[in-house]
Amino acid sequence: MIYFKLIKSSAMQYANTWLRGNFAGLLHTSADLSSQRISEFLKMLGAERVWRQFFKEYLEKLIGSKTGIIVDSTGLPNEIDFPLTAWGCHGGECEQETRLLMVVEKETGMPLYFRYMAGNIVDVKTLANTVAELDQMGVILFSRASW
In terms of residue numbers, what domain contains 126? Predict the structure, then answer.
């Protein structure tokens, strides 16, 4: 699937046909890039426990950096009917959205952490919860008394 996305800009529904018609299919004879398998893989990859485990291991390798962090919480407007879509107001506008929070290392811009939440969660609560989570992972570079 990675080869396909790097080489082609086609929809994923063509991945299995592509795989069977080139050298990658010979290298990975047991690969199944049918639409159903791709959906199952992406669902598994998007599971919260999977990305939390990824960040736990990823952060253990990056903890040596002590230059600081930048936290950004952004509303992503959408009208999808699922639990994370909620009315959120910021910048004088109210709309249905999901919030995406990103934490990056200040000097390098390397991503340290992300999470998503309902659009109606306010930034102050989001920041406090994120600081607590990052503190548990050993990322916070300042004491709580300093913020």
Answer: 48-146
- Identify whether residues 76 and 106 lie together within a single domain: yes
Contacts of 131 (CB under 8 A, 6+ apart): 140, 144, 147
Amino acid occupying residue 66: K
91-to-74, 75, 94 alpha-carbon distances in Å = 11, 11, 8
Beta bridge partners of 70: 104
**Same domain (yes/no): 12, 67:** no
pLDDT in tens, 31-51: 999 988 888 988 888 888 888
Q: Give the residue-averaged pLDDT of 91-112.
A: 84
Task: Note whether 33 and 85 are same-domain residues.
Answer: no
Residue listed under structure tokens 């390397």:
110
Q: CA–CA distance from 18 to each of 23, 36, 138 (Å)?
A: 10, 16, 43
Which class for 86: exposed (0-12), middle (13-18), buried (19 or more C-beta within 10 A)? middle
